[in-house]
Amino acid sequence: MRDYRLKEIDLSSRIQLAQKMQDPSRQWGEVTELSRRYQVSRKFLYQLKWKATEALQEALAPKKPGPKEKRKELHVDQTVLKRSILTLATAIPGSIRGIQVSLKEIFG
Predict the structure, then answer these.
(1) Cα 96–92–107 angle (5° rounding)?
(2) Could you give the CA distance from residue 73 to residue 65 in angstroms, rounded to a whole number?
(3) What is the number of alpha carbons within 13 Å of residue 8 lying toward its C-beta?
């Protein structure tokens, strides 16, 4: 078995390779020819085919109709953190209403 060194293959080449691998009318020996031409292993080409198949199935699978569910994750960056600290620092000495407003500001 020959050791292949995987050189960088750009996205458009990967897409073309995946399309050729997906072709059911592909000629016998074409995978070997592609592996030689691009200096990659046949295993790499079949893995590329499987990844493309999975991606297509995921992209084209029927989805639940209607609006998408809202994310239940909280994205916190430096700005949100500073705003939250400032909001809590000014609202905590206040009433329950102030705390409710602070939590609404922090968590949406």
Answers:
(1) 80
(2) 22
(3) 1
Whole-number Cα distances in Å, 102 to 7, 83, 88, 96, 105? 53, 10, 6, 10, 5
At residue 7's C-alpha, the angle toward residues 18 and 53, to 5°, is 20
Closest CA to 84 of 69, 71, 101, 72: 101
- Characterize 7-43 residue by residue with b for buried, 16 or more Cβ atoms within 10 angstroms of its Cβ, and e for exposed: eeeeeeeeeebbebbeeeeeeeeebeebbeebebbee
Give the model confidence (pLDDT) of 10-42 as tens digits.
888 888 999 999 998 989 999 999 999 988 889
Q: How far apart (Å, rounded) are the C-alpha atoms in residues 70 and 12?
A: 34
